[in-house]
């Protein structure tokens, strides 16, 4: 029931990002929200990454957010209001074996958002960081359209890896997140059961590491078995 516009944008291009934000403000006279949502990843162990893999994910997941902040935040300060919403992940505060470069960037986005949120408050600007759990999007298999996978395992095994973590429907996820953004919450974790993991990680990081390590060892064995017994994934 609302109007919308679309524009192509590579978030790695700071100039293009700034131009897109400037054009939106020129058309509408204000900037209420900026959602930094673009993300990608490399599936597999860090021992198999190349420097290009690291740079690629850092450029999208971290520098893309920074480019958005640089484009929108000064303009929001000048107008005296606005809300930056940066999408990180539960991998921004939990260890994430098999997606180490992804977790690295998401930790950085959480830190950026929490620090910037304090600086922004006196200017009337809000900052929220969204930490999704597992959401049923294409990124779960093959890294999505723009991701990369270093694991030679079938698609079915990649899907099976995520199922115990109860992936949420993306439309339901979006509705829940938007409601919490509207309330101005600084840290937004959905699905709700991941908030227990947030609490556990804060209470005992060592226990959270132990749980993640156990899952890593079990999953590594399962994926290696799948790679030996199944045809190559597409």
Structural overview:
With 234 residues, the chain is an alpha/beta fold. The protein is built from seven helices and six strands. Strand 3 (82-87), helix 3 (100-120) and strand 4 form a beta-alpha-beta unit. Helix 2 (51-79) packs parallel to helix 3 and helix 6 (194-203) packs across helix 7 (205-229). The longest helix is centred in the first third of the chain and has 29 residues, at 51-79.
Please name the defining characteristics of this protein:
single chain; 234 residues; alpha/beta; 4-stranded parallel beta sheet; two-stranded parallel sheet; 6 strands; 52% helix
Brief account:
This protein is an alpha/beta fold and 234 residues long. 52% of the residues lie in helices and 11% in strands.
Annotate the secondary structure layout.
Blueprint: H1 14-28, E1 33-36, E2 42-43, H2 51-79, E3 82-87, H3 100-120, E4 125-132, E5 148-149, H4 155-162, H5 170-182, E6 187-190, H6 194-203, H7 205-229
Parallel strand pairs: 1-3, 2-5, 3-4, 4-6
Helix pairs in contact: 1-2, 2-3, 6-7
Which structural class matches the secondary elements? alpha/beta
Main sheet summary: 4 strands, parallel
Q: What is the CA-based Rg, rounded? A: 19 Å
End-to-end distance, in Å? 39 Å
């Amino acid at each position: 029931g609302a109007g919308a516009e679309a524009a192509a944008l590579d978030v790695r291009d700071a100039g293009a990002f700034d131009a897109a934000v400037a054009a939106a403000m020129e058309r509408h006279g204000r900037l209420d929200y900026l959602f930094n949502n673009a993300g990608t990843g490399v599936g597999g162990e860090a021992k198999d990454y190349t420097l290009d893999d690291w740079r690629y994910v850092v450029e999208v997941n971290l520098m893309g957010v920074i480019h958005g902040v640089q484009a929108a935040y000064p303009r929001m300060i000048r107008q005296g209001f606005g809300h930056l919403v940066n999408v990180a992940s539960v991998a921004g505060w939990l260890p994430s074996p098999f997606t180490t470069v992804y977790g690295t960037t998401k930790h950085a986005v959480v830190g950026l958002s929490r620090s910037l949120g304090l600086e922004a408050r006196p200017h009337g600007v809000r900052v929220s960081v969204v930490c999704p759990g597992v959401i049923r999007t294409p990124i779960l298999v093959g890294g999505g359209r723009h991701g990369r996978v270093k694991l030679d395992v079938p698609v079915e095994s990649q899907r099976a890896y995520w199922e115990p973590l109860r992936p949420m429907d993306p439309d339901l996820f979006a509705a829940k997140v938007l409601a919490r953004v509207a309330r101005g919450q600084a840290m937004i974790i959905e699905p709700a059961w991941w908030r227990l993991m947030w609490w556990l990680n804060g209470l005992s990081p060592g226990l959270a590491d132990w749980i993640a390590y156990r899952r890593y060892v079990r999953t590594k064995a399962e994926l290696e078995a799948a790679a030996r017994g199944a045809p190559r994934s597409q």
